[in-house]
Amino acid sequence: MASLKRSDSMADNMPEALRQSRYHMKKCFTKYVEKGRRVMKLQHLLDEMDTVIGDTAERATLFQGLLGDIWLSTQEAVVNPPYVAFAIRPSPGFWELVKVNSQDLSVEPITSTDYLKYKELIYDHNWSKDEEALELDFGAFEPDTPHLTLSSSIGNGTNFVSKFITSKLSGEPEKAQPLVDYLLSLNHHGDNLMINETLSTTSKLQMALLVAQVYLSGIPPQTPYEKFDLSFKEWGFEKGWGDTAERARDTMRSLSEVLQAPDPTNMERFFSRLPTVFNVVIFSPHGYFGQADVLGLPDTGGQVVYILDQVKALEQELLLRISQQGLNFKPQIIVVTRLIPDARGTKCNQELESIEGTKHSSILRATIAHALEKTKYEDSDIKWKELDPKYHFSCQFMADMMAMNAADFIIASTYQEIAGSKDRAGQYESHSAFTMPGLARVVSGINIFDPKFNIASPGADQSIYFPYTEKQRRFTQFTPAIEELLFNPNDTRDHIGFLADTKKPMIFTMARLDTVKNITGLTEWYGRDKRLRSLVNLVIVGGFFDPSESKDREEASEIKKMHALIETYDLRGQMRWICAQTDRKRNGELYRCIADSKGAFVQPALYEAFGLTVIEAMNSGLPTFATNQGGPAEIIVDGVSGFHIDPNGGGGGEDATRKMADFFEKCELEPAHWRRISDAGLARIEGCYTWRIYADKTLNMGSVYTFWRVLNKRQKLAKQRYIQLLYNLHFRNLVMTDD
Known about the structure:
Elements (H helix, E strand, L loop, with lengths): L1 E2 L6 H11 L1 H12 L4 E4 H11 L3 H7 L3 H7 L1 E7 L2 E9 L2 E8 L5 E3 L2 H12 L1 H5 L5 E3 L19 H13 L7 H9 L1 E2 L2 E2 L9 H16 L11 H7 L9 H16 L3 H10 L5 E6 L17 H23 L7 E7 L13 E3 L6 E6 L17 H8 L1 H14 L3 E3 L2 H5 L14 E3 L3 E5 L8 E3 L23 H9 L7 E2 L9 E5 L8 H10 L1 H6 L1 E5 L11 H16 L6 E4 L5 H13 L3 E4 L8 H8 L4 E4 L4 H4 L7 E3 L4 H20 L2 H17 L2 H21 L1 H26 L1
Parallel strand pairs: 1-5, 7-16, 10-11, 11-13, 14-17, 19-20, 19-22, 20-21, 22-23, 23-24
Antiparallel strand pairs: 2-3, 3-4, 4-5, 5-6, 8-9, 12-13, 15-16, 18-21
């Protein structure tokens, strides 16, 4: 866990905060330790404080100052009488660990090792006392590696690295020699790219660049590279500079500026021109990964769509770049996923499959499985033994640790995926320090201030999800089927419920029926809110109607709950429930039909890591209301390009439905308001969330970090040896045992 490096840390101020409320705090800590050793989450701490300090006004007064900041920043506490150890997280990525003596309220900072041992005492006393217990410390290999320092900078790795590279190359010409050596190393299957040994020093390269630029300025800009490649070769240049004289000159000018007076912008621009990435391997290990008939199968949803769209975008960008570099190489993209013998009528038992809509991309299936799941199951690290028979966390978490530390760079879709929010640790952040008693104690796992972390958000397929206003592109062949889905008054196998007033706008949602997606929550919000019901109809797409058709107990439970809500709130006539739809083109047109009604899209999840349906809806021109828990909070600028809603807000969704009702009432009074939000949503997507932007960012990162790896070769090698040791002496045994 990263220690908080500031003079006014909470640990420093905690003694004074406790002293100011000593009477109440003594009672609280006595209450905390009376049940012996245990782990307490924040809510447990607050609940027991409520029982000790019964007066609401007194509690409110206590929490107005620093004491409130400390308690509300606490992720958990470990009770080991007479001590209570606190894991305090003042802001994303920063952790403070302290222990408080319940008898005299003295405060003492502790290390992550101490804190983890406190937890181990509860679950495996002998392990916590074992001096030979395996302790992993990846942070020991990073003393010289520069790191970001602000929570707000997490995920801006490429920018930080570019600045650092700039500082390393600035000054005397000799400082740029690592870049020259790097350019000399570039090749494709043994053929040199960019430069050859003729230009082995900075001064030689600079002189040759001047000569070449003068030559290129004297010939027509569109002259093909083949017309001057022999002259270039004599001067020490190889192919890769560009397909035309103009592009080659621009690339050379960019390098000249980097060598003469480097700055981060020129550095990134130059690296984006380098021919360094030709092949991409993508691992997508969970669910049934296929191109047809897989959506709706266990653990199979948006991830499949995401990867297939990602592949197409990357191949398109690679082909464009390779062509612009004046090369004729063919890229190759391979998606490695699970080979599933029981394929359920899909091609998931086929080892190799070409990806439709691409020329050089394939699916390769092998025996692998898992995604980042540490935050999905609470306390899954400390309770790994009881969960291991089903989830194999012993292998998963160790594999995650090795992969994260071995990676040159890591791309997340959102900031929250890396660092969470003010109240919740991110998926990657949760690997900073944890323990699996009896297996390993990770005192320093992954540091989210490492500049390897980046954010590149995906988009939606814009050939399918495009604005409702683009009439000529609309998939009108689906219009009759969509009208039947929405407005046929009779119940069928595809839909139940009906809309009595078909002129009303529709609020629309589409997701799996599980607890986290919270579709039944939205239904209940709508059912309770008479004002919202008077303004709009509710359309839900998801799941089955018969719980016996579902093989998932949670989904079956949600189906039963949905039926109960329809009856409880008498929603027939105002709600249409459509079973899960897997035709992407028809779904794209469905979004646009909802937009035609001047409706809106609602994503009410309790937590959403990214929010692909939010992107799809906004791409279609639908004003969108989405959860503020997770990725959608970053996608939408609240009140400008859509609206945030709090699925955990007070009043059982009243805050969310009030926001929706206010919007539709304003649209009735001011019809242009709907179009303003719609247009702002489209602009937001076009500026930040397209596959074109994603592919460009990702390939640029590949170029920058390839050179970064060269500059940090010593630290990289040391950590790699550590990982190899861990793999050979520990992880392989876990895998064999697991098998």
